[in-house]
Known about the structure:
Blueprint: H1 3-8, H2 11-20, H3 23-37, H4 50-53, E1 55-62, E2 69-76, H5 83-104, E3 109-117, E4 123-130
Antiparallel strand pairs: 1-2, 2-4, 3-4
Amino acid sequence: MSDLQRSLKGPHIIFILKQRYAFIPRSLPIILLLICCASPIDYFGNEVDINTDRIFLIKMRKDRTDKDQYTLIFVEQRGDHSKNTKMKRQKTLERYVDLIKSFYGYTEHDILDERERGIIEPRYYVTVKFN
């Protein structure tokens, strides 16, 4: 048995790993703080102010059967929804649909389905057919 194999057996490997990665527990709170304080980024890489936009796009799924139909998945702001915030959500949805139309070269769209899910992390699902 070589020296390397003997050193990797038993408590020696644990001691080596503890020495090598000892900085992780100390720096973990700083890393978490930096991640939590970062502003959210939408599907297209734009920074989002959730207070003014109400929703932002995180996923865009293409339908398996129809290549021009997509399910848009948005993160929604938590809290009570008033008539004003629903109007904000509709305006932001229209902006995203217009962006998708210009990006992929579509001219028309039909919203087939809208649904909301979740309480802790609310999601807003919209199925859109583009022409």
